[in-house]
Amino acid sequence: MTSASTLLPDIETTTVLIVDDVIENIQVLTKLLKPEGYQIRKALSGKAALRSASQSPPDLLLLDVNMPDMNGYEVCQQFKQDPKLRSIPIIFVSALNETENKVKGFELGGTDYISKPFQASEVLARVHTHLQLYRLQRQAAYQAQLLAEKNEQLNQEIADRIRAEEKYRVIFESASEGIFQSTAAGRFITANPAIAEIYGYDSPEDLMASTTDIGNQIYVRPKRRLELIAYLNQYGKILDAVSEVYRKDGSRIWVSENIRDVKDEDGNFIYYEGTVQDVTERIQFEQILKQERQRSERLLLNVLPSSVAQRLKRRPDTIADSLDSASVLFADIVNFTPFAAQTAPKAVVTLLNDIFSAFDALVERYKLEKIKTVGDAYMVAAGVSTPMPDHLEAIAALALDMQAEMPRFLRPDGHPFSLRIGFHAGPVVAGVIGKKTFAFDLWGHTVNLASRMEETSLPGRIQVAGDVYEALHNRFQFERRGVVSIQGLGMLETYFLDGQVNESQA
């Protein structure tokens, strides 16, 4: 059977389709991506892109919005309607950088949005990130399909085996199954060569002579035979009773037993008889399936919050919630893009992984929800999928702890990286976008204002608006910054969060 990894493209064979009606833009992106090992295909129009993708689907689409015959939004819509193309990640690359343009792109199924003029490192980082996510999602889908097929096959094998064992349970001479008769006291009366081989004895005679107490010598778990006898006394027979047993050399295996009690015409007990099969491989296979199922669930949890993932597994419908009150935090590493442009990719990714792993641990400690990372930006929410009465206090405490982590991470010059943070609280809309490629995200004024607080904050500072200050100033220390111009919102009074209020100060 082909493994999931062989179905996914290696970096050397990953294909990126660039769609733009301006050939110079295509040349710039090609010059940027081709040295990274990506296979580049080009299309000068939306229709040409659809024809090319239909013949040979790419692994990622870099799509311009403004094109004459068919704009990028229409191309994206066509991709999402085609079963062969809908899971392909689409990154819009456009000079239209207004929020409504980005929202429209995401609503149509776009994966990301890069505004022109773009930074080379930003394009490379986002292309690499979304190709990695695409690989993980395809791998998860393949593993889920494999798991379903293996489960179906296993269930069919078990059903067939039970029917066969029921039909032939009184046939004692069998070359493939162990056959036995035993007394109530736990001694073998008869045994065939197959059962002697299963238990590791040289012959049936060796098995019967050596085994004087089946309950203590055969079964690993104490009182297992007493459990089986109690069941037999009530129902008269047992099908597919799986037990761990000892072999003669002391090693352990798993067997499946079909057992019945044999009685005379007057209903008096004579002996037990049954068949035995070595099912060690089946048990190991079931354990592998369980591990694969857990791995698939972990992959889903990497994309979605736990409560949302559980809802999606129970009922795979559209998930969209309107919440009256939640907190949203944005954090961005200051001047990380120039650093990334001058640093080896492996070192960049390693550093980001170390920083974000530290943030992940804090998020888990406060029982909050990591929404996503985009480049060197980090987004967290509280009170979204899990109710939390004190979500604003938790977000504030998280922000302080995130700043406290940064001195551990040093630039090449020995100075620590700086973190810019902003957060806000209020009503939000939360939901899952996508059918195969899932993305949990938040929308609304609260999200926009939290993002603006981060964008206009200063390195090493945590900025909030007046509403947050009023809600928290009795429990946290703030410094008034003054009036700040906020894009789309005008002039707002803002504050810097400095720390928590000590009990002696309260």
How would you sum up this structure, described in words?
Helix 2 (46-55) packs parallel to helix 3, helix 5 (120-167) packs antiparallel against helix 10 and helix 13 runs antiparallel to helix 14 (391-405). The strands form three sheets. Strands 11, 12, 13, 14, 15, 16, 17 and 18 form an eight-stranded mixed β-sheet that branches. The protein starts with 14 loop residues before the first strand and ends in a 6-residue tail after the last strand. The chain is 42% helix and 27% strand. It has helices spanning 23-33, 46-55, 72-81, 99-107, 120-167, 193-198, 204-210, 214-217, 224-235, 280-303, 306-314, 336-341, 345-365, 391-405, 445-455, 466-472; strands at 15-19, 39-43, 60-63, 90-94, 112-115, 178-182, 188-191, 237-246, 252-263, 269-278, 320-333, 369-374, 377-382, 419-433, 439-443, 462-465, 476-486, 490-500. It has 506 residues and is α/β, with parallel strands linked by helices.
Gross morphology is elongated
Structural class: alpha/beta
- What does the largest sheet look like? 8 strands, mixed
Amino- and carboxy-terminal Cα gap: 66 Å
Mean pLDDT: 85
Oligomer: single chain
Set down the secondary structure blueprint.
Layout: E1 15-19, H1 23-33, E2 39-43, H2 46-55, E3 60-63, H3 72-81, E4 90-94, H4 99-107, E5 112-115, H5 120-167, E6 178-182, E7 188-191, H6 193-198, H7 204-210, H8 214-217, H9 224-235, E8 237-246, E9 252-263, E10 269-278, H10 280-303, H11 306-314, E11 320-333, H12 336-341, H13 345-365, E12 369-374, E13 377-382, H14 391-405, E14 419-433, E15 439-443, H15 445-455, E16 462-465, H16 466-472, E17 476-486, E18 490-500
Parallel strand pairs: 1-2, 1-3, 3-4, 4-5, 14-16
Antiparallel strand pairs: 6-7, 6-10, 8-9, 9-10, 11-13, 11-14, 12-13, 14-15, 16-18, 17-18
Helix pairs in contact: 2-3, 5-10, 13-14
